Amino acid sequence: MALRGKHILIGITGGIAAYKIPLLVRLLIKEGAEVRVMMTEAAAQFVSPFTLATLTGAPVGMDFRRPDGTWNNHVAWAHWADLILMAPLTANTLAKIVNGQADNFPLAVLMSAECPVWLSPSMDLEMYRYPAVRDNMAKAASYGMRVIPAEEGELASGLKGQGRMPEPEHLFELIRQHFQNRPPLPDLTGKKVLITAGPTYEHLDPVRFIGNHSSGKTGKALAEAFRDAGAEVSLIIGPNHVVDGSEDYEVVPVTSANDMFEEVKKRLDNSHIAVFAAAVADYQPAEVKDNKIKKADERLTIELVRNPDILAYAGRHKKPGQVIVGFALETDRELENAKEKLARKNADMIVLNSLRDPGAGFATDTNKITVIHRDGNTRSYPLKDKKALAYDILHELEKHL
Ligand code: CTP
Question: Which amino acid residue places its CA nearest to atom 27 of ligand 1?
Fold first, then answer.
């Protein structure tokens, strides 16, 4: 089950090799992958969306409108994927990809991708060697996409030459190898993992709150990494735009630090691992007004009271064998502050991110972290996307299991 938990999105365009994609889908699913398919109108002339929907157990993405009239969120499709493979890819769609044209659903998904994108251009030999097509393949490669060379052999035209889509078994093998290049995740099957994420909002009155810029992206990436490792995940997340209900783990939306604390307390004792990635407000208004606060004097003083420290609570109630991970966002004396925080809150590991690093921090897709262990060992990682860092954090955490 080398592909357990991996999300693979296949985009089919209108080429004859489309009829082979159901076989690829079956191979991937057998190896544990979750597969979704999107296709162009032309592709549906070659292979039935119904076949693919049946095999994958999910609707096939063809349109920005779902049959019930709601929006088929192409960004959510893109972000779901750990790998997007366009196969077979026609010369026409290849040209649109390199020109940034998004006049159909699969193209819009592809342009929203955060994961690797692979292309398998397949066409007749003359088309395959046509200069503009060659240029487009080179351009796609220069944009960071992996272009899988077509194979030599018999073509639909009856001619022989380069242009065939690699057989499903071959494409499957490339995908398997790709995911195996990462060191294998620890097997967390049967382990319960609790993660806090996002900001908290502390209400002042019915319309206002005190909040912060946390996006919840790191917490979501962690939830996905733990899910990939087979764990049972509960993500307790403050107000955010990153979860959309399509997650295949428990998501518990909360608003304030108190709400978050209550939800953590319900699950903490049963959790093997608890990761506190939320940016919890340290204070809340001493009083929440029933009516909107009207402006009056030049100055307004709001009294704040301390919020519960959720991580510190978890540290105080730590059970034998339980692993507790905290986060620290520091602006000065980073390492000392983080080490001090680890000890004070009785965590096993602290993930430190510094606001000084460009590309690191709250709303970005990337981050730069240093992991500090209880025994004083530390390791710094280069700037990476948050999903890759979540995998690194899991590997660091393995030492405590
Ligand atoms: N945290 C928490 N509950 C709080 C405050 C923080 O669970 N009320 C957790 C965060 O999720 C994070 C860690 O504690 O894992 C560090 O939070 P931070 O606010 O940086 O630390 P503090 O201890 O509040 O220290 P300071 O405000 O002095 O930086």
Answer: 282
The pTM of the full predicted model, rounded to 2 decimals, is 0.64
How far is it, in rounded angstroms, from Cα 220 to Cα 148?
31
Nearest CA to ligand 1 atom 20: 328
Specify the residue with its C-alpha closest to ligand 1, atom 18.
Answer: 328
Q: Which of 273, 327, 371 to mutate to test the pocket of ligand 1 (most atoms within 8 A of CB)?
A: 327
The ranges of the chain annotated as CATH 3.40.50.10300 are 192-284+304-400
| 385/125 Cα distance (integer angstroms) | 38
pLDDT tens readout for residues 250-276: 999 999 999 999 999 999 999 999 999
Q: State how far the Cα of 271 lies from the Cα of 251, in Å rounded to an integer.
A: 15
280 Cβ inside 6 Å of ligand 1: yes
* AA identity, residue 344: R
pLDDT in tens, 31-83: 999 999 999 999 999 999 999 999 999 999 999 999 899 999 999 999 999 99
**Cα–Cα distance measured from residue 351 to residue 277, given in angstroms and rounded to the nearest whole number:** 9
Q: Which CATH architecture has domain 7-179?
A: 3-Layer(aba) Sandwich (3.40)
Question: 192-284+304-400 belongs to which homologous superfamily?
Answer: CoaB-like (3.40.50.10300)
